[in-house]
C-alpha cells in the first residue's frame, strides 16, 4: 500500500521537455495531503467499523441471550401452565371423588334412616294390630260376661215369683169363688 511518505519521497527523472518541478511538487503535496486525509479517514472509518462491529457483535450476543431467555421463559411458562392444568385436573378429580364419596355416604345414611323409619313403622303397625286384637278379645270377653250376667239375671227373674201375676191369679180365683157363691 502506498503511503503519503512514499508520495512525498517520490522523485521523477528530468527530461528535456519535462514538467515544471514546482508544479509537480505542489501537485504531489496536494495528492500527498489528500491521500493522507483519505488514509486518516480510512483509519478512522476502520476504527469506527471495528467499534460498530464490536457493538453489533454485542447486540447479537444480547439478542441471542434474549432469545435464549425468551425460550427459557416460554418453556417455563409452558411448564407452569402444564403444572397448573395438571394441578387443576387433579383438584377437579379429587373434588369429584370427594363429591361422589359424600353422595354415596349421604345415600347410605338416607337408606339407613329410611330402613330405621320402615322398621319403626312396622313395629308401630304390629303394636297397633296387637292392640286391635286385644281390644277385640276384651270386647268378646265383655260380651260373653254381659251375656252370662244377662242369662243369670233372666234366670233370677224366672225364679223369682211374679207377685203381680200371683196377685192377679189370686184375685181372679177369689172372684171366681165369689161368683160361685153368688150363684
TrEMBL record:
* One Pfam family cited in the UniProt record for this chain: DivIVA
Family recorded in the similarity comment: Belongs to the DivIVA family.
Q: Where in the cell is it found?
A: Cytoplasm
What is the name listed in the Swiss-Prot or TrEMBL entry for this protein?
Answer: Cell-division initiation protein (Septum placement)
Broad class of where this protein is predominantly found: cytoplasm
Any one GO biological process: cell division
Q: Name one GO cellular component term.
A: cytoplasm
Q: Mind telling me which PANTHER family this protein's record contains?
A: CELL DIVISION PROTEIN DIVIVA
Gene3D superfamilies on file: 6.10.250.660
Q: Which intervals of the chain form a coiled coil?
A: 85-112
Q: Tell me the superkingdom of the source.
A: Bacteria
Region Disordered, residue ranges: 164-183
Q: Which UniProt keywords apply?
A: Cell cycle, Cell division, Coiled coil, Cytoplasm
Amino acid at each position: 500500500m502506498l503511503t503519503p511518505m512514499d508520495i512525498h519521497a517520490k522523485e521523477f527523472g528530468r527530461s528535456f521537455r519535462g514538467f515544471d518541478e514546482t508544479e509537480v511538487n505542489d501537485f504531489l503535496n496536494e495528492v500527498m495531503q489528500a491521500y493522507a486525509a483519505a488514509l486518516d479517514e480510512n483509519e478512522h472509518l476502520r476504527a469506527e467499523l471495528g467499534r460498530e462491529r464490536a457493538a453489533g457483535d454485542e447486540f447479537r450476543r444480547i439478542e441471542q441471550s434474549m432469545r435464549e431467555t425468551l425460550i427459557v421463559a416460554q418453556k417455563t411458562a409452558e411448564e407452569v401452565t402444564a403444572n397448573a392444568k395438571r394441578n387443576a385436573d387433579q383438584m377437579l378429580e379429587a373434588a369429584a371423588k370427594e363429591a361422589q364419596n359424600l353422595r354415596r355416604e349421604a345415600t347410605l345414611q338416607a337408606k339407613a334412616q329410611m330402613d330405621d323409619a320402615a322398621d319403626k313403622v312396622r313395629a308401630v303397625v304390629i303394636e297397633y294390630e296387637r292392640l286391635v286384637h286385644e281390644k277385640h278379645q276384651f270386647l268378646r270377653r265383655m260380651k260373653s260376661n254381659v251375656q252370662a250376667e244377662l242369662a243369670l239375671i233372666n234366670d233370677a227373674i224366672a225364679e223369682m215369683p211374679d207377685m203381680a201375676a200371683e196377685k192377679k191369679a189370686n184375685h181372679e180365683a177369689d172372684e171366681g169363688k165369689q161368683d160361685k157363691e153368688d150363684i
